[in-house]
Amino acid sequence: MEPELKRVYEEAAPEDGARILVDRLWPRGLSKEKARVDLWLKEIAPSDELRRWFAHDPAKWPEFKARYKRELKHNAVQLALLRRATGRGRSTLLYGARDTEHNEAVVLQELLRHERTHRS
Predict the structure, then answer these.
(1) Is 117 helix (H, G, I), strand (E, B) or coil?
(2) Which of 23, 25, 40, 62 is buried most deeply by CB count within 10 Å?
(3) Nearest to 40 by CA among 63, 55, 23, 54
(4) What's the CA angle centered on 105, arms 41 and 10, to 5 degrees?
(5) Confidence check: pLDDT of 56 > 70
(6) In angstroms, how far is CA 84 from the centroid of its own chain?
């Protein structure tokens, strides 16, 4: 089952399943109780250097995706943790960015989707 995507600032819901935060930094102004995060994979997030370069500029999105995917190739342990966490039923990848179309969770969801469709 493919994970859903959701801003961590949105209200947690039972249908979220396992709530997995994929940001390197804890969301500003959000308590751990309110966030209801089941797993925080901060090491799977883009490097600080890549994050600063991207700065959530949609014009840099294609290049960001390519660079982030290159980083992920060297992050096998975290990818394995993500695969395991999202492979057990319903799950939601949480992110803090305001932009719902251009963030690391979108890249991770696409990567998982691609792996699952090409696994057969």
Answers:
(1) helix
(2) 23
(3) 23
(4) 90
(5) yes
(6) 14
Structure tokens at 40: 């925080």
Chain mean pLDDT for the chain: 95
Assign residue 20 a region: left if phi > 0, alpha if psi is -120 to 50, beta otherwise? beta
Q: Is 19 exposed, middle or buried (0-12, 13-18, 19+ CB in 10 A)?
A: buried
CB-based contact 42:24 (threshold 8 Å) = yes
Distance between CA atoms of residues 82 and 23, nearest Å = 13
Q: Is 2 exposed, middle or buried (0-12, 13-18, 19+ CB in 10 A)?
A: middle
> What is the pLDDT at residue 7?
98
**In this structure, what token pair is assigned to residue 110?**
């696409």
Question: What stretch of H or E contains 34?
Answer: helix 32-35
Which tens digits make up the pLDDT trace of 4-54? 999 999 999 999 999 999 999 999 999 999 999 999 999 999 999 999 999
Q: Are 100 and 5 a contacting pair, CB within 8 Å? A: yes
